[in-house]
Amino acid sequence: MYARPEAGGQVSHLDDRCQLERLQLMAAMAGQVTHDVNNALFAILGFTALTRTALRAHGDSEKVLGHLNEIEAAGERGRLLVRQLSALAADASPASPTTAVGGIVEEVVTLLASSFPAGVVLSAHCDAELPALAVDCAHLHRLLSNLCRYARELVTPPARVVLSAAAHACSPDERCASCDGRLGGRTLRLAVAGHGCSLPAHLRRRLLTSPLTPTEVGRYADIGLFVVHGLAHFYGGHVQVLTTPGGDELAVLLPLAAAPSLTAVAGAGPGNEGPFPSP
């Protein structure tokens, strides 16, 4: 699907189809990033105005420091969003491994939990030890965010949605839900599951493989599956869907870094809930 970097940071030749797919992925991500950057700028401008007002009125240092923290956080989000597009536009995937996968999962859950409907709880479930990925952390952040976006649009309250990360050894008979390619080898499995998260198979495949518009598929155009498909295959991974009575579990399986390192994830361990906790 997408060309992978060769040794030494060089990239193999992309044919016209791969170039088109890359441009389609960039266009789909650009629409999402534009929306998110606008939110970050709103926070920057809004809290700047509040800070100015607080200084003029009372000189309340605690309130001012709080506003400055919000401004800094919004700026960091903006920088991350810009990096997502610039990394994809480059001719090579980053060579350095992303080791803090569990930390990024927790960060995404913290950032997006308040955006879910009333009665829906978003939580994280990570293995105690996670292997490293040769994936840009900004792209990993976008991938996880889009898995949550998918669940947010489909879940039926009251419910719990779980974003998980775990090492996974693929069996020979497993196939990709979007390209139908065979899965293989040791991977890191990033998944989202929640009661009621389900789509007809034919619609899900269209959403994964084509940048569709609201005119074509209504509200389903906004759940971000095309970006999930594109980023997964950009890094040599695949998409998996497991159907259960409670709803579908959507997963991305990414190949491990060449020299994986194990990192502990705080809070993970025995007793953590599985993919379908009770509402």
- According to DSSP, the number of beta strands is 7
Number of helices: 7
Query: Span from first to last CA?
Result: 38 Å
Shape summary = globular
Overall pLDDT score? 75
Instruction: Note the run of SSEs as H and E.
Output: HHHEEHEEHHHEEE
Q: Strand pairing plus helix content: what structural class?
A: alpha+beta
Q: How is the main sheet built? A: 5 strands, mixed
Low-confidence stretches: 1-14, 91-95, 259-279
User: Strand fraction band?
Assistant: 15-25%
Order of strands, main sheet, comes to 1-3-4-6-5
Can you put this structure into words, describing what you see?
It is a single chain. With 279 residues, this protein is an alpha+beta fold. It is 44% helix and 17% strand. The protein contains 7 helices and 7 strands. It has helices spanning 16-57, 61-89, 101-112, 137-154, 201-209, 214-217, 225-234; strands at residues 120-126, 129-130, 159-169, 186-194, 238-244, 247-255, 263-264. The strands form 2 sheets. A 5-stranded mixed beta sheet has the order 1-3-4-6-5, covered by helices on one side. A hairpin with a 2-residue loop joins strand 5 (238-244) and strand 6 (247-255). Helix 1 packs across helix 7 and helix 5 packs across helix 7. It is globular and about 65 Å long.
Summarize the structure.
By secondary structure, the protein is α+β, with helices and mostly antiparallel strands. The protein contains 7 helices and 7 strands.
Short key terms for the protein model shown above:
two-stranded antiparallel ribbon, 279 residues, alpha+beta, 5-stranded mixed β-sheet, disordered N terminus, globular
